[in-house]
Amino acid sequence: MNFHEEEKVHIYLAGDSTVSTYKKTLAPRMGWGQVLDEMFNERVMIHNEAVSKRSSKSFYNEGRLTKIVNHLQQGDYLFIQFGHNDEKVNDPSRYTEPFTTYKKYLKKYILAARSKGAFPVLITPVERRKFSPDGHIVHTHGDYPKAMKQLAEEENVPVIDLTSKSNQLFSKLGANKTKELFLWLPPNKNPHFPEGKKDNTHFQERGAYIVASLVIDGIKELNLPIKEHIVNQDK
C-alpha cells in the first residue's frame, strides 16, 4: 500500500556528530542517524538534523531547534541525543554543566516538541571507545547520562539509555573488536583517509548500524507506538 505524505510518521533527530549524516567523501564514517531509516518500514520518515560539533546549547543557540519545530506536527517524534560536546569545558559556546545548564537546554527541546503535539524522546550519549590498561571499558560521559535520566523522570519523558547499552556492548566486544565499529582505519587502505585513522568517538558503517540497532532496542523496550513500523534487522 502506498501512503500519502501526511500519513507518514516523522522522526526528527537532534544531535551531534555521532548521529549525523556524512557525505560519501567521508565514507566509511557514519552516524547512527544516517542508517536509522533502514530499520523502519515506509510509514516512517527520518529527518536527520544532527550536526557535528554541536552541544545541546550550541544547537539551540544556532536556531537549529527552531528549524525543526517549524516542521513538527502532531504525532511526530523528536529524538534528542547530546552530551559529547556539552562536555567541552573550555568552550563556553558549547559547554553545559550536567545538572544545571545541560538539563535546562534539554528541557527546551522537550517543551518545543510538546508545543507542537510531538513526542520528545531523550537518548543518553553513545559511549566512546576507551579501555583501561587491563582491558576494562571506561565510562567517558561523567554525570551527563545521569542528569539526562533525571530530567526524563522529572518531565515524564521516555529515555533510551544508549550510554549503558553501548557501554555493555563495547565491554563485551573488548578493546580490539570495538575497533571494527569505530573509525579505526589502517594507512593506505581507504582513499578518503590515506594516512589512516584512529578515532574513538565516530563510527564506521558497521558501528553505525549496530548503534542504530541499540536505539531500535530502546524503542521496543519503551513500547513506543512507532515500534509497529520497525522491520527486522540483523545486527
What is this structure, in a nutshell?
By secondary structure, the protein is an alpha/beta fold. The protein is built from six helices and eight strands; from the N terminus they run βββααβαβαβαββα. Helix 3 links the parallel strand 4 and strand 5.
Summarize the SSE layout with pairings:
Blueprint: E1 9-15, E2 29-30, E3 44-48, H1 56-61, H2 64-69, E4 77-81, H3 98-115, E5 119-123, H4 144-155, E6 159-160, H5 162-177, E7 182-185, E8 197-204, H6 205-222
Parallel strand pairs: 1-3, 1-4, 4-5, 5-6
Antiparallel strand pairs: 2-8, 7-8
Helix proportion of residues, in percent?
25-40%
Number of helices: 6
Percent of residues in β-strands:
15-25%
| Low-pLDDT residue spans | none
Widest beta sheet: strand line-up? 3-1-4-5-6
* Main beta-sheet strand count, sense and barrel state: 5 strands, parallel
- Can you tell me the overall shape? globular
Average pLDDT, rounded to a whole number, is: 95
Structure summary, number of beta strands? 8
Straight-line N-to-C gap:
28 Å
SSE pattern, N- to C-terminal: EEEHHEHEHEHEEH
**Class by alpha and beta content:** alpha/beta
Cα Rg? 17 Å
